[in-house]
């Protein structure tokens, strides 16, 4: 009898366990309600999901702004609730979380997302069209916007730009003067090559172009401006055609420029991660996040800012530089009333929030009206000016991950491969991926 | 989601109930003494394990099987269309065009052919080496097993430092002593996969060594004594006693190493990225399903891969079965 009772109890436990597991995605805030959740005190709860860890400097800055919002909107009974999902497994890990939430109907009201994903997210219906909710005047205050098919789907949290960090001591010893090359007056591709040649002649590796960084987004982010500078492109304006763009002769010229740097021995795939920081390389292509490293970590080689500087991207038929960072977007999460959500979005993208967050992260503010007093000629000034004057966003396409992969493969194969063959292969792969998504309708 | 969960749960209960009923009926037909209470108790005891196996093993397989015939796009989970064999047609088209999938198959086959004999051979050699009494053998056992405990991602990172290009790489700096110029081991298509094979065999052989040791301990010592009395040398003893005694262990290790090798993902992902010369089937599936978000296509590849691995495993079992 005892055994029988035990078995009955175990069966009941199994049923409860099975039910709790299979239905675990259905609890939470009732994802299918038309209105946001209201707590016991009558506050409308707006959930916002961030891609960073709560304890990080950036996470703390977000949390402070959320707390300030809650204090300011106490009387309106709107309460923001921050959810932090650190990208511990890379950007794809965060995206998986988003997709799971979408499947379960538990999407936050506002999410942060990587700007190149705008097209894919918008076309799939993940993001809410905010074109009519954000005034044209307000939109003009941002350096860039997350647009797809002419509609606005997101507002940037902050901006980024990149350039060539250079070792002033090496340049001085080699007798190279680059003081005339500024964001307002960038050097040409020929001048860039000429400086590389003189550095090589001096006996150092001229430039770390990061062509070895092809496992993630680093190489595409840093190198795509060279293709725009050469007059090339990747996809059509609507983002659905790669053939004739990615494999155009202008695009090939951009990649050929990088290949020439490799074959001339100005750069290589074998440059160590710290070679520039330890004085073995003349220039280093990187984003603003390298500034704190040079200021603090490598004092033995760069004791002050007199020892290093930042040069803009070289221009070809036009000037182009890297941009893009993470953005905010309102989601299509079945909460049809977006009034309170919009309030939070406006708060988080306000000049005050932009100032607070970029002060914490060291990145460039997304808004033009956030005035950062940088000394002319300083690295920060160069990055900001370059962003204003020549910032170009990465290609807007629903198959951006495939673009990123193929770009990496082209860079990887440049040393021994033929540029035209590499680009034709990349174009076919990208076009195939675009078509697959497009044909779904 | 809730409806799907309830349907799945109902199907599971029906299947389980059906099985119980079938057992009852067949027992009655065979006129066996059948104690319903005992039987029900047994089935209920079994239920939690069956439920978990259903939920975490069978259900994902069934889902994947179903997705293989759809155009499931990860960003549109509510818009899945049945496309019948379209994904499979795409797969064969890509293979015939020698696209990335073709490279993935080629690299996976190369990896399996390289790593299975190397890893098993190394494991057997190490097992024979440490299968001796003494403190030294215990130390060696720990040393040889240590790489198994280390996370594969850390191992991959460490080997990346060893194989780093230029003069800064550990291997290159060692070879430079003998005048060998630096080589980019992981970028060169001729050396990248062999490097990954060596690293994988090194990392995994410690585990198989332990299984071999367990197999060796089951071989009776008197067999060696008898062989020795008959004048058998080391090789004859190994071939006629040890190898015969390890037959079932070898079959088990062969099957598990083969299956593990077919699923290689971490090493190429962390060491080279998604490149033609190192992409593997699992990496292709991951990239297709997660990065490109084409779950339907990825599931179709997974289905074909499962059929292929299952087929080879059955052949292996048949070839090595006890006569």
Give a quick set of tags describing it.
heterodimer, A: 441 residues, alpha/beta, D-Maltodextrin-Binding Protein, domain 2, 6-stranded mixed beta sheet, 4-stranded mixed beta sheet, 15 helices, 41% helix, globular, B: 323 residues, mainly alpha, MetI-like fold, 2 domains, 14 helices, 75% helix, flat
Flag low-confidence runs of chain A. Answer: 18-32
* Largest interface in this structure: A-B, 52 and 46 residues
Percent of residues in helices of chain A comes to 40-55%
| CATH architecture classification of the largest domain in chain B | Orthogonal Bundle
The computed structural class of chain A is: alpha/beta
The CATH C-level name of the largest domain in chain B is: Mainly Alpha
Count of DSSP strands of chain A: 14
| CATH topological fold name of the largest domain in chain B | MetI-like fold
What name does CATH use for the topology of the largest domain in chain A? D-Maltodextrin-Binding Protein, domain 2
Please summarize the sheet with the most strands of chain B: none
What structural class do the secondary elements of chain B suggest? mainly alpha
Q: Give me the strand/helix succession of chain A.
A: HEHEHEHHEEEEHHEHHEHEEEHHEHEHH
Q: Would you state the CATH class of the largest domain in chain A?
A: Alpha Beta
Counted by DSSP, the helix tally of chain A is: 15
Categorize the overall geometry of chain B. flat
Mean pLDDT across every amino acid position of chain B: 89
pLDDT < 50 stretches of chain B? none
Secondary structure: elements and pairs:
The complex is a heterodimer of chains A (441) and B (323).
Chain A: H1 2-22, E1 44-50, H2 57-72, E2 78-84, H3 91-104, E3 110-114, H4 118-123, H5 136-139, E4 146-148, E5 151-156, E6 158-159, E7 162-167, H6 168-173, H7 189-202, E8 205-208, H8 218-229, H9 249-263, E9 281-287, H10 290-297, E10 308-311, E11 321-322, E12 326-330, H11 339-348, H12 351-361, E13 364-365, H13 379-390, E14 391-392, H14 400-413, H15 419-438
Parallel strand pairs in A: 1-2, 1-3, 8-9, 11-14
Antiparallel strand pairs in A: 3-12, 4-5, 5-12, 6-13, 7-9, 7-10
Chain B: H1 2-29, H2 36-67, H3 86-96, H4 100-130, H5 135-149, H6 152-162, H7 170-176, H8 189-217, H9 221-229, H10 234-245, H11 247-262, H12 266-271, H13 281-291, H14 295-319
